[in-house]
Write a structure and sequence with these properties.
By secondary structure, the chain is mainly α. It is 52% helix and 4% strand.
Length: 324
């Protein structure tokens, strides 16, 4: 997303509300000792024991299968990308705040998105996903920007943003929101941005294979521009397919119906007629994509079946939400 995106932001949100990251998300990490994780581990143990007793001869499904992450990502230091992402994310939020377009923490849709994220984040290190181990230390943030764009992203380091237009125009239910969030989180977990930048660096001759010496000369200038690239990066079709699969997996483990991946892309297909939304410029919809998602449903259906379901449900934005 470019700086011009914020120019289209409407000013319906509270102009006096400051940006305060949700402490529950900033320090909510997979494997921590909080009450939420303790309950989940307890329930998971009970479910695993029950499944073993009920079906002793049947192996439990482990979710989707993904390859190892590309070695090209190693050409670019992960800490540098995450630092650039954090800086660009903070600048984006500050700009939105100045435009009175950063939703306050008590906005109903912010509460909704953070609730979904709190359910998904504990599952980002599931072994089958082969996520970057750095994710265990990420300080997750979720924010809502009051723009009409149909868009969302997750930057390296766990920096998530949704645009109001995505929730409002498509009237997404919670399961569909979880599919979007899971998909965007998957790009960060699988280090797709780092891989794409590694390929660019290698083909541009900025660094030599087997070396990651940045900080001086052309390498330093390359890193200085990382932040802007992270908001405009276009992923490959393979990256998109992989993000669909991983997104289905983490959302299903969080108790959200993976079949919503199909209805989500059906809605995106409807929205693409005429003038396609911004999100579709990098996330193309179509029958082939829906068929691929459907082909992965059997792998994640068992995850969803045994996952604790959300006890609180939310709805799409209402007219009163837009006035906040």
């Amino acid at each position: 997303m470019k700086d011009s995106t914020v120019d289209a932001i409407n000013a319906d949100f509270d102009p006096h509300a400051g940006y305060e990251p949700d402490p529950a998300l900033l320090w909510h990490r997979p494997g921590c000792a909080c009450a939420l994780h303790s309950r989940r581990r307890f329930h998971a143990t009970l479910l695993a024991g029950g499944a073993a007793l009920a079906l002793p001869g049947l192996a439990r499904a482990d979710g989707v299968v993904v390859p190892n992450r590309s070695s090209l990502g190693g050409l670019v230091p992960a800490e540098e990308i995450e630092a650039a992402a954090a800086q660009q994310y903070a600048e984006l939020l500050q700009q939105a705040k100045q435009q009175r377009a950063l939703a306050p923490p008590d906005h109903p849709q912010v509460v909704r998105l953070r609730h979904i994220a709190q359910r998904i984040v504990p599952h980002v290190l599931s072994p089958n996903l082969k996520s970057t181990p750095r994710a265990k230390d990420w300080r997750w943030e979720v924010n809502l920007i009051g723009a009409k764009q149909v868009n969302a992203f997750c930057m390296p380091g766990g920096k998530i943003a949704f645009f109001y237009g995505l929730l409002d125009q498509l009237k997404l239910n919670d399961d569909e929101c979880a599919m979007v969030m899971g998909h965007e989180i998957a790009h960060a977990l699988r280090e797709h941005a780092r891989e794409r930048m590694g390929k660019t660096a290698a083909t541009s001759g900025l660094i030599e294979l087997g070396s990651a010496l940045f900080g001086l000369g052309t390498g330093g200038r390359y890193l200085a521009g990382l932040g802007g690239q992270l908001l405009t990066l276009r992923f490959s079709r393979d990256d998109e397919s992989e993000a669909d699969k991983v997104g289905l997996d983490v959302a299903a483990r969080a108790g959200y119906d993976p079949r919503a991946g199909v209805t989500l892309w059906e809605k995106m297909g409807q929205a693409s007629r005429g003038s396609p939304p911004q999100w579709l410029s990098t996330h193309p919809a179509g029958p082939a994509r829906i068929q691929e998602i459907q082909s992965n449903l059997p792998a994640v259906a068992p995850l969803y079946a045994r996952a604790p379901k959300p006890t609180q449900r939310f709805g799409p934005p209402s007219p009163s939400d837009a006035r906040r």
